[in-house]
What we know:
α3 runs antiparallel to α17 (353-372), α7 crosses α14 and α11 (225-234) runs antiparallel to α21 (430-445). The protein is an all-alpha fold. The chain contains 24 helices and no strands. The protein starts with a helix and ends with a helix. Among the domains are: 1-80; 94-221 and 241-350, no CATH class. The longest helix has 29 residues, at 189-217.
Amino acid sequence: xxxxxxxxxxxxxxxxxxxxxxxxxxxxxxxxxxxxxxxxxxxxxxxxxxxxxxxxxxxxxxxxxxxxxxxxxxxxxxxxxxxxxxxxxxxxxxxxxxxxxxxxxxxxxxxxxxxxxxxxxxxxxxxxxxxxxxxxxxxxxxxxxxxxxxxxxxxxxxxxxxxxxxxxxxxxxxxxxxxxxxxxxxxxxxxxxxxxxxxxxxxxxxxxxxxxxxxxxxxxxxxxxxxxxxxxxxxxxxxxxxxxxxxxxxxxxxxxxxxxxxxxxxxxxxxxxxxxxxxxxxxxxxxxxxxxxxxxxxxxxxxxxxxxxxxxxxxxxxxxxxxxxxxxxxxxxxxxxxxxxxxxxxxxxxxxxxxxxxxxxxxxxxxxxxxxxxxxxxxxxxxxxxxxxxxxxxxxxxxxxxxxxxxxxxxxxxxxxxxxxxxxxxxxxxxxxxxxxxxxxxxxxxxxxxxxxxxxxxxxxxxxxxxxxxxxxxxxxxxxxxxxxxxxxxxxxxxxxxxx
Length: 500
């Protein structure tokens, strides 16, 4: 009996994850205390960071919350960080947490209107290059005035809707049938190739949109959470912030758009996947039937959702309140005017946001290790040891590399604090402080597109319910981001050298 129970415990550990994955996580948990004793907390801290990145990379094998949570808990138990530090980091990012809980849920209640608009767009724009450019450009513009996570939530909702419509039909069901979109057993061999092509098409659009959020997010005070922090420390208002970033953000934006066109035209690294003809016909038929059968009440729902979306854009653009509170207002307004008033109807909206919110708090545990063990201190000291004329591009690259490893908000917090201390102590002039601040902001926003953990919007996409459906893994995201990473980083670096 004990043997049976112990075998069952092992089988239940991390559920249906592969045995090799389970053994790897167990090995991590066993090795970490040994490393802490033998090589010290600094090296062990870096090992834990790499272990967490491994969990993110294997997100399609096992959701990172559980294995990453075990590693973070062990780090706290070993004293590499503390529960107080994790709480402090969570409090610092409370607005981001509210955003995830309420804004992502709010977007869920706008899906009818979003599907109506984007179905028209996709079925009418036949050029994949133009469609990709539209996704990238729109995401950039919206992210400059809204925020990257909100825009990412919108494109995830749209792509999930398209995938659901197509998957139902090729599984032999009607548009209104209940269906498990993760179950491919009903897909025939003759349509499986089209399904894979459709997944590739959606992967392309999602990555163009995600990169667009980074291109727009770097430009304004409200584009990314760290922008507001940096702008507050520097004393820059909205217009001044945008003007100061422009020497770097504008060339990077132009190059980003050109990169979008080039990767599509030349089918680089998996881009250029067209919308399969069969999928286009299904979406066109869906659009036709929806238009024919749409009742006056359903039309009223779309109109009210559009009005709430307009409220969302204006409220975010003028920063009427914290983003999460605006998201809560969206939930209230969208449900009040569309007849969704029962508790069980509301619950589905939070299914996407809450697991990622929990994962983000676990991530703050890993950030706590970086903070308490001063893992980035050698890089910071090295940058400050350079000649002053080399520090601006060095800050740009150092912030970019560290953001890709950890988190751009944390990296920006550390670096802007160090630079402000140098200014207050008289080590640097105000003019040089401004240049370093620009390098910090652009560095944390631009090269960090290299990995999903570099930006919260990318991580949200990786861990969304959509990612496994369209086979968007950590590795695929890195590969698809690579052309953008190269062109945007080089452009940003050259701008810090020759334009600033």
